[in-house]
UniProtKB/TrEMBL annotation:
GO terms for molecular function: acetylpyruvate hydrolase activity; isomerase activity; metal ion binding; ureidoglycolate lyase activity. It is an enzyme of class 4 (lyase). Transmembrane segments: none annotated. InterPro entries: Fumarylacetoacetase-like_C, Fumarylacetoacetase_C_sf, Rv2993c-like_N. One of its GO terms (biological process) is carboxylic acid metabolic process. Residues 55-253 form the Fumarylacetoacetase-like C-terminal domain. SUPFAM superfamilies: FAH. Residues 1-50 form the Rv2993c-like N-terminal domain. This is FAA hydrolase family protein.
Amino acid sequence: MRIARFSIDGNVGFGVLEDGELDVIKGHPFAEFERSGQKVPLDKVRLLPPVLPNKVVAIGRNYADHAAELGNAVPDVPVTFFKPSTSVIGPGDPIAYPSFSQEVHHEAELAVVIGRMCREVPRERVKDVILGYTCANDVTARDVQQREKQWARAKGFDSSCPLGPWVETGLDPADIAAGLAIQCTVNGEQRQLGRTSDMVRPVEDLIVHITEAMTLLPGDVILTGTPAGVGPLNVGDEVAVTIEGIGTLTNKVIKRG
């Protein structure tokens, strides 16, 4: 099932995507819900970020080839950092190039969307706390990341966390471990191509590790790392992240006003 969050005529709602239409649901997708039977063509709505997370917990250097391309070793424990809710944008929304950076990179990532409040999740129950998966772009001010010990500005600036286009609920950690293709293109040219099976630590391990420390809330998002091939974005570029079995997230880079 694909669940999208959308806006039409000033109203915001969730819908199940089928055959190019959204079947509007009653309530929200973080509990049992009913379909209203009211259907809206996908091309008549504006797709929004599929969730509004309280927090985005991101994992760094979770693909060995990406760690190597930046001259880093694979860490002994997952590298975790936060992207604030104000960094989140949706499909088609512009990425505003930050004025304090001269080197902004794309990072195509699989995002896990949490479906229920959870803490200290045992590995065998990870599947129970996941609503689904979506595409993400961990846009990074690389020059700032390299000169500042903390990554808050480099990874957390406004519009640095595109998510979308919807949440795919029909996948589970076993599908991710088997290997979904993950790709990034810039202006139609392929930059990144990897498989989720290349993650150093799988989704189960990441959720166990994160929830040892903190409570995750419905709608929270976990970014699972990026494969090799990260590179620069410039004003005017169109960047697209495609993940097998989910869809394509596309955003254009603009000058920050």
